[in-house]
Amino acid sequence: MEALKRKIEEEGVVLSDQVLKVDSFLNHQIDPLLMQRIGDEFASRFAKDGITKIVTIESSGIAPAVMTGLKLGVPVVFARKHKSLTLTDNLLTASVYSFTKQTESQIAVSGTHLSDQDHVLIIDDFLANGQAAHGLVSIVKQAGASIAGIGIVIEKSFQPGRDELVKLGYRVESLARIQSLEEGKVSFVQEVHS
Amino acid sequence: MEALKRKIEEEGVVLSDQVLKVDSFLNHQIDPLLMQRIGDEFASRFAKDGITKIVTIESSGIAPAVMTGLKLGVPVVFARKHKSLTLTDNLLTASVYSFTKQTESQIAVSGTHLSDQDHVLIIDDFLANGQAAHGLVSIVKQAGASIAGIGIVIEKSFQPGRDELVKLGYRVESLARIQSLEEGKVSFVQEVHS
Hints:
2 copies of one chain form a homodimer.
Chain A: H1 2-11, E1 13-14, E2 20-21, E3 29-30, H2 32-45, E4 53-57, H3 62-72, E5 76-79, E6 91-98, E7 103-110, E8 119-127, H4 131-142, E9 146-156, H5 161-167, E10 172-180, E11 187-188
Parallel strand pairs in A: 4-5, 4-8, 8-9, 9-10
Antiparallel strand pairs in A: 1-2, 6-7, 10-11
């Protein structure tokens, strides 16, 4: 998605060979118009897949997921990373290991909002080692729902998350695929469009 | 806002005289079309106020704030409740006391995304005791920005948050004002429309 790649080039800050900071339009400040375009793009790629629900994770997945849900006309459920007083019943949970924080944490979705009739599109802001995506996949499967695919705003293709998900048979649609952050520069995977 | 009130009546769960659970469309599952209508309503109420930025707080404020930002054509910044590795520089912080959790926590916004040239609309999902709103007000003022008003999706009018903010001179626009949750029933404040 060219508009996203240009935004990353213009505003992304390469903090290290591993870390790209996009706090000006996705992870802290949000560009609503770009989120709408991202939502339209995900909706277009999954338009014929019979999606009934989008599952994402707080906080940075919410904006792209809601814009996708608006376009597809389906609800969005966001997994919680932190305990909520009113989120208590019928919890589906998964452990997610954070390589950056080096901590294991629980994510949770109420089973009330996912059923075995659902065909789910999982959306997240970043895909790196794939821990959050695997956690969301686990939760969706616990509900007995099926998975149409995984939509990622920014993929760090030099980390193993994508390949592992693809090997497991999941369709991964990433709107910007980063080949490398070396030498302080963002290089994208060259994709051949059919 | 009648569509929101009907949704609360149909899907809200009164957990006690103090707590209303709206996990089916706002706090856990999100109804994107309703969020768009909420965004349109906030945008309409603040259309002539010269808003340059929207400030909200993760996670449930994000969806209504982004829809409002989309309509007004301005960026959204969400305050973080939890430490982020990439959010480090130039932090504006405030302490927020949670009556429900009985804990004090820090919220933070990077000063990079707020300036003394900004005229801010603060948006949040709930207004009860007003602690989160006061925290956001403090952060916006630390940046030297001015505040156009505070947009609230659901106000618990029987708690003191609104009155305190109005006494301090802030304009509070709440789309659904709840008079009482007694006897397991949602009663709205009767408003006279001019």
